[in-house]
Design brief:
With 187 residues, the protein is mainly β. 0% of the residues lie in helices and 50% in strands. It has a single domain, classed as Immunoglobulin-like (Sandwich), CATH 2.60.40. The two termini are 37 Å apart.
Length: 187
Amino acid sequence: MTAPPPCPQRQDFSVLHGFITPGSDTTPHALDASITAAVLDPTEGCEPVRIVETTDRWDLEVDWCVCGRFADMLCGCWCVQVFIDDIDGVGRTHGRIGAAKVSVDSGTRCEGEDTAHICFEHTFHFPADTVKAGVYDLVVVITLSGCDCDSAKPRVVQDMLGYAEIPVLVFFDEDAEFCPGAPLPRP
């Protein structure tokens, strides 16, 4: 028998993440980036959560930064997209559930000795009943266009993409059947 878990147990809010830039492969790094995301409960002081009642509103905060010698040369518009997919075979919500454009000009700049560090943030506010009960995987994808956010034909900057994945996000319905039986096998 294995050892029991500690009680209380710390919650794990780890996020899988990655970012590629045109300067990621150069040494020293001429242009790098980072990203993270968190599901927040706006009714509880924006505390991070991974379990949301379907009848509650919830927020998703996305934060990302670019840094390096060429960071201050970026211009254009970020596209931040949110995707959700069930991982339990039961959840009925899937696909893109949010998207936003964020101007590069809105970033917070911190100048270093010979590099720039620019950070961005966008919070999505989801109303109650946006996601049906189930267990989900949530992924945020960020791309950059060299055009302004109001451009009619933006073009994605090649090799400029970031992602943040929240691997387990549970939406529950307190009125649902308690402990339903196993689903029938799929044909």
